[in-house]
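Why does residue order matter? Because the sequence determines the fold. Keep that principle in mind as you read this record.
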Amino acid sequence: MNQFDLNEYFESLLSIKKWTRDVSQNGIQVENSGGEITKIAFATDACDKTISRAKALGANMLFVHHGLFWASPQTVTGIFYKRIRDLISADMVLFACHLPLDAHPTLGNNGALAQKLNLQNRQPFCEYAGDYIGFQGDLVAGDTVEDLCKKLDVEPLGILPFGKKIPQKACIVSGGASHEIEDAVKAGADIYITGEINHQMYHFAAENEISVLALGHYASEIWGVRAVMEQVKKDLNIDVEFIHMPTGL
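Structure:
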């Protein structure tokens, strides 16, 4: 398959075209010279280290959640020049998928987190850019916050333990979604699971008696790229590999 065949595959798999209000530049961000794609590396972030690692692995496509281009025009200078130069010199495609990879019910970050936590009675949560990106539902009876961390195999960035010791209802939005705690309170959640935590959340969570489990932005957004990688492995005759580049944030 070439890059354009894979572009159609990913667009269909992840319903990318329906996200017309996503300001991210979803899809192919950097092309190759037109050769067949024989290996795809998957990573959360497009950065110097992941590009270098993908090249060392022999990948000629890099699939990421956080690409290089967003809403504003970007000059190809400094680190952006180096990243693009390295992609082109390696003849490597860069494919980025942001909100569609947060929102997909089974292959997205939030859907995968909900599956790992065995969230029951799952419903959409947090409308953003014209559609829902997160999920809400009932946790397994008896699970503490520590049990949730064990299920996700994560050392959390932070915990605000102001809700029930045994939370029953959770709302999940990966990444930088601190303000969505307000929606979690309105939904009647006992715990809000997200990526980042900030100062303003502390008193809001305490006064509304809701816990916050901040997994870390990176740790909350490795799930989608991994799930898509496994789907590619099932569907296509292409070698795949995940590049783990944790930031601790």
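The longest strand covers residues 120-128.
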